[in-house]
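QA checklist item 7 of 12: single-chain prediction sanity check.
[x] sequence parsed
[x] length recorded as 336
[x] structure emitted
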Amino acid sequence: MSAIGDLQTVEHSGMLKLYSALFYAGCSFLITLVNKTVLTSFRFPSYLFLGIVQMILTLVVLYAAKIRKKVQFQDFDRSILFKIFPLPLLYVGNHITGLASTKKLSLPMFTVLRKFTILMTMILEVYLLKKSFPRRLVYSIVAIVFGAMVAASSDLAFELEGYTFILLNDAFTAASGVYTKKKLGTEGLGKHGVLFYNALFIIIPTLLASAFTGDLHKAVTFKDWGDATFVFCFLLSCFMGFVLMYSIVLCSYYNSALTTTVVGAIKNVAVAYIGIFVGGDYLFSWTNFLGLSICMSGGLVYSYFIFNQKTPVSYEGAQELKIHITGDSTQKEAII
């Protein structure tokens, strides 16, 4: 396809890209607050069980929609496993480490350390999809990571287990985003098939792991099941878990894995600063606040470049970023 054709495609789908990005940002913001309430405020002991119920809801909603002909995706056969692998493994890793890190870390530090997902996603796109990026985007990412390191260096509530979980979550999120973008183009799957079969393949192993580790017993015997407020928050978290996964797939479908990650950074701007005043588990220090500000500023600059770029960027695995239209239209310009 020509450069002009690419530009027309981008302009035509621009609103869908923006709306899907805003939808993902809103869902991500809400579920972070709800999960924090369930796992920290109510001290619910089982993030695995929470993830299992979210998967069950995903299966029920999508299967009911398929029966009613509201959505379409391929019926199960032996080819499905090969089509979707390794997404189920990445999904469960992302799900479990995300919930665990939400429980272990304060809200601002959780959102700061999530910024490393941007760097990891860019690295994966460079090595797996052979992409290149303009230096101004790379510099803004450096600012994001630097700010995150400054903020984390003064975390007065340092939690080694929490930091380990969040960095693993970053890696799983980056890999899951890149592979989701690739799998969305697989014949027979599409947006809804990716969601449904992801949940289907991982729910049984996750349930067995929860039972084997005693996690399921802790969830069943939790003392606040009779508390209407807790039950409401728990059910809301389960519903938002499904909506969040759908919004991620939708954003990746209309954008790229990297853009989806950038949208998460935009959301984190609001979450991090709200978390300073709401939640009660943030220990203020000027170094930490400075790091937060640097990190968030880098995220905003990066987001501005992404959503205001004049040159169309191919996110389908193309190796070039810019195309000169002067003279030889096929001439490529190396960016990095």
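[x] summary fact logged: Residues 265 and 299 are 6 Å apart (CA to CA).
[ ] second reviewer sign-off
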